[in-house]
Design a protein that fits this description.
- About 6% of the residues have low confidence.
- Helix 1 packs antiparallel against helix 8.
- The protein is built from 8 helices and 16 strands.
- It has 361 residues and is α+β, with helices and mostly antiparallel strands.
- Strand 7 and strand 8 form a beta hairpin.
- The strands form 4 sheets. Strands 1-15-14-16-12-13 form a 6-stranded mixed sheet. It has a 5-stranded mixed sheet with strand order 8-7-11-9-10.
Length: 361
């Protein structure tokens, strides 16, 4: 019995020594476990970034800009000149008012002669008495004039009318992050950018998360879809391509927040408070409210990165957080409270001591 108590006592002494050694290493070496750097390490001097303590005197460069005014102007669709291309389908009406018996085509009184033709891959059409003619790049009026010219001398009094009934040259392609991508015709009238996107079912993402690229063959324009909705609409040229894709409007939340991870910015002009709210806020059980940081790389790679620090214990910090803008690719990091870090080390040690005592007894 005495020998058993001695062994148990020696075991407890060794375990206690191990506990003290572990705590000593944790306190001196800063090796406590965590999801990222410690508040003291971030605030240490001679770091490769500029640390900015957010207060009334330093917040100005990091504040949100003014809300963009909504424009009152509207896009006025004006029918552009369509240039024909391979794949277009033409309806050709030819009337011949020559004396009865000598006319090659039906007179206008009976509706004329209707001919439908497709422009082939070489840009050619073929019509009776007109033959094969190159029409790619022409306008409808130019095709009418060409037909009259080719029929001159063949019949005495000919009239022509050419209508585009199946168009590639006048259509607009909408692709990417829309619900129903496809090619949409302008035969019923010119399309604005909003018209085309609406015909494609609208974007599948929130407007501020969508970039719009418009290609016309010799020009490329890019917009944020939220800007288009605010009044920057435009009339699309025939044969344009409209591509909607995800805008890189994301930030990373790390540390003692409720929902860490890669997140979409909740709005175009997201504040720090909005961003924290979108991840559920600080985790009250273990967050250190004095250690809320925003890590930001400068667009100019020759400059040092910036780290913003906000002390949420300060009542004014709520207003500061409402004013600070979060940019794409920012990282929000909330440090753990020191007592929580100690608890993560001490709790398993205490549990081991209790278990060993139970075994000893």
């Amino acid at each position: 019995m005495i020998k058993s108590l001695v062994v148990s006592h020696k075991f407890n002494l060794k375990l206690a020594a191990l506990t003290l050694a572990t705590l000593g290493l944790a306190g001196c070496g800063g090796t406590l476990s965590g999801a990222g750097p410690y508040k003291g390490d971030i605030e240490a001097k001679n770091q490769p970034y500029n640390l900015v303590e957010i207060n009334a005197n330093t917040i100005a460069p990091y504040m949100r800009g003014a809300v963009r005014p909504v424009q009152s102007s509207i896009a006025k669709p004006v029918a552009p000149t369509a240039r024909l291309m391979a794949g277009d389908i033409l309806n050709v009406l030819i009337t011949d008012n020559a004396p009865e018996g000598s006319a090659l085509f039906a007179p206008l009184a009976t509706g004329g002669t209707q001919l439908k033709t497709r422009i082939d891959d070489q840009g050619m059409i073929s019509l009776p008495y007109v033959g094969r003619q190159f029409v790619a790049g022409m306008t409808l009026n130019q095709v009418e004039n060409m037909i009259r010219k080719q029929l001159k001398g063949v019949t005495t009094d000919v009239q022509t009318h050419v209508e585009l009934v199946g168009d590639l040259s006048g259509s607009v392609l909408v692709a990417g992050a829309v619900k129903a991508p496809g090619r949409f015709s302008t035969l019923q009238g010119p399309l604005t950018l909003l018209d085309a996107v609406n015909q494609a079912g609208g974007p599948v993402l929130e407007p501020h998360l969508v970039n719009v690229t418009v290609r016309t063959g010799n020009q490329v324009q890019q917009f944020n879809y939220e800007d288009v909705l605010a009044g920057n609409n435009m009339v699309l040229r025939p044969n344009s391509e409209v591509v909607l894709d995800r805008a890189r409007q994301r930030f990373v939340a790390m540390g003692a927040v409720q929902e860490p991870g890669l997140k979409d910015l909740p709005s175009h002009n997201t504040s720090l408070l909005d961003a924290l709210g979108s991840v559920g806020g600080l985790r009250e059980a273990n967050a250190n409210p004095e250690g809320v940081f925003v890590f930001r790389l400068d667009e100019n790679t020759t400059r040092k990165p910036t780290v913003l620090r906000l002390d949420m214990r300060d009542p004014a910090a709520i207003f500061y957080a409402r004013q600070i803008v979060i940019k794409p690719d920012d990282t929000i990091y909330v440090t753990n409270a020191a007592v929580y870090e100690w608890q993560k080390i001490v709790t398993p040690i205490v549990q081991t001591l209790v278990l060993s005592r139970a075994v000893g007894n």
